[in-house]
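As noted in the main text, all predictions were made from sequence alone. Below is one such record, for LysR substrate-binding domain-containing protein.
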Amino acid sequence: MELRQLEYLLAVVEEASFTRAAARLHVTQPGVSSQIRQLERELGQRLLDRTGRTVRPTEVGATVLEYARSALASVAGARLAVDEYTGLLRGQVAVGTVTLAPELDLPGLLASFHRRHPAVDLSLRESGSDELAAALTAGRLDAAVLAPDRTPPPGVELQIIADEPLVVAVSRDDPFARSGRDRLALTELADRTLITFTHTSGTRGVIDAACAAAGFRPRIAFEASDPRVLARLAAHGMGAAILPEPIARDHPEELHVLSLDPAVRGRLALAWRTAETESPAARAFLSHARTALTTTAPPPP
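Prediction:
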């Protein structure tokens, strides 16, 4: 019995197909079939039911599968232990993010980690904060940069890496701009067409909650996940944008910026599962990210 045969068996069961398993393993389908037939001859039992439209494990095969998973996990653990001892880190790290402000250099952080640990496979996906939190708790992500609600979801720990005021930005010919004011009561937005983040954003949740506390439901006409898009829409006179202050003030020729009363703040956080991960690569990335993002995070208000 060879580890390769157990790996092939696991792949066929998980993919429910010899063809898909071969593609996943980057080998030929006859090679996969041959190795599994050899394993079945050695054990004297059929491990896979090939009679249906999809391949399924037989009763004996399901039992063998448990031992196969355990054996492959033990081998992977032994390899990781040796790699840690020799200083060569391997593995996979999956990171998620919302659309970020330009000053938060997540690509630079990923690149610096890759230079330290070139044998670790990194992946990055973009999504809304709620989806990222769900992927974290389900184990599909090792870390995420998201816009948190007031309390983190169960099983997720946060490190705040940005905490900025949200402001209103309007075009230079907007009535708010012509008035010369630099501060605005939140209730004055009740009858305005608003431009802000998508409903999946944690920052949008903060905005909706602030408007509800002020006694109105915002009239949102334009949504985007990228704050720079919000700024451009406001500059073209499409409405009043609610966005982070640094983004708004980056367009002094096109936008007039007003502070909100009461103040509303938008936050970004590095998030990870509270339970310690078994992956040395993920632990190393979290340590790297927490240190790097601490040095770049603004001081608390």
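The chain has eleven helices and twelve strands. Residues 59-86 form the longest helix (28 residues). These features were considered when defining construct boundaries for the mutagenesis experiments described in Section 2.9.
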